[in-house]
Amino acid sequence: MKIQLWSIGKENDAYINEGIKIFQKRLQHYTDFDIKLIPTVKQAGSLSVPELKKQEGKMILDMLQPQDYLLALDERGKTMTTLQLSDFLQQRANAGTRQLIILIGGAFGIDTAVLERAQTKLSLSALTFPHQLVRLIVTEQLYRAYTVLNNEKYHHQ
After folding, report:
1. pTM (2 d.p.)
2. Which of 3, 30, 31, 126 is most buried (CB neighbours < 10 A)?
């Protein structure tokens, strides 16, 4: 199963990139993983929040393939433990999912049309994190989940 982490926004700061690269390299032992940065909408500052979300949503929906499994990160989504995330990944692989897209929306969240397309909505926390840190957290958690699936010592239960 291929996993892509899509994120609307700017490049990571150097210290965050360093952390992401560490876990991205480790993940390659388990799955095909890539990060795709989606540039912000042109003239985003002149748009209303609903219009900005709608335009971001259209870009995302245009990029998705019909067979892609979409997991959207959303504050109203369900939460998972690391063990539940590892089970989720195994279930997706068992179901024959070819590509799992994990989506981090824009600064104001994800458009309703994209949330309706998402098969799973996940909340990382009730706290608000910068998008760059979320990329690092998700990458690390994917690595952690795969070490659980492979009975490796990284995750302590």
Report:
1. 0.94
2. 3
